[in-house]
Amino acid sequence: MKSTINPSIADTGAVVGMSGGVDSSAAARILLESGCHVVGATIRFGSSMDPDDRARRRIDDESVENARDICRKLSIRHHVIDAGDRFEYTVIGGFISEYARGRTPNPCIVCNEKIKFPLLAGLADELGLERIATGHFARVVSLRGGRVFLASGADSNKDQSYFLYRVPVRLLRRCIFPLGGMNRDDVVSAAAGLGHGGGWRRGSQDACFVCDGDIKTFLTKRMGRCPGSIVDSDGSVLGTHEGIFSYTIGQRRGLGVSGTDPLYVKSIDAEMNTVVLAGEDEIRTRVVVCGRNKLRARSLGGGLSAKVRYRHGPEEVLRAERNGGYLRVVFKKPQRAVTPGQSLVLYRDGVVMGGGIIERTGET
Length: 364
Description:
Helices cover about 25% and strands about 30% of the residues. It is an alpha/beta fold. It has three domains: about 10-200, HUPs (Rossmann fold, 3-Layer(aba) Sandwich); about 225-280, SH3 type barrels, CATH 2.30.30; about 285-360, Beta Barrel (Elongation Factor Tu (Ef-tu), domain 3), CATH 2.40.30.10. Helix 1 runs parallel beside helix 2, helix 1 (about 20-35) packs across helix 6 and helix 3 runs antiparallel to helix 4 (about 105-125). It is globular, with a radius of gyration of 22 Å.
């Protein structure tokens, strides 16, 4: 693997996505001190389509205020981008639709692909700037005659390349990830003195629009209650639920039923409105089938590993094969709680070779 792309920063300019948090603030300072012309940008996600969502608009206001204060300390310009209605339709709408299908989506991946990076690039174009930058722990590398690839961050505990695998190559070519080669402690040091009011706001969560982290309540408000059955693998009724959106594959707690042995969510059948429970052995699989794929090579070859969730480590892949519009991945070892709606991301030596949305598991 060749070295990380390092453009002549002194001769370029970048729009830096700034949330008001420590990572994006450190990224802006690092670029600025490297001689780059830096402009900060904060994206508003609150939507007029949801006038009752005061909490999300309040968080937006706090992010803008904090980012503006940090830009003032750095003596750089600050812009605000309104993405509320677009975010509501594309990210939140898709999030709800996926849960209605019995799947568990990852909204951050959708947002990076369709909202965040395109909007930052659009502002850069308006300002005549070449680059866009964020505080993600990831890298951009050049391989195979100068082709640009996404790669994992140096700090494996903070690597966020999983969330970025769908960012279009045309935008990836413009990206700078200043934190890609750093560890967390160094990043905090780089942002010293920039925190609003002497501190930092709480870091972002997996579904930033669910302000209190209570996804079940959020989805119940949007979708309503829809009672159904909880069954075992043989179809015997074990209990009832108030909505399939309250469950995800591999879940053990909060099932509302008990057995002699621990039970986990094995599958969710949206058509029958049922949640299927099983033992530990039945929630593992070696075969994963993905759709809506974003792959960087016609022939994937060997030497691959893959992550089936952000918090899962990369696991060795025996083979990855295209089959029509699908990607079939066979792991060396069975993987636990592989979940439709999540992403499978392929790596070779830390370089992202692509991935797709998990559709199903098993041999078919």
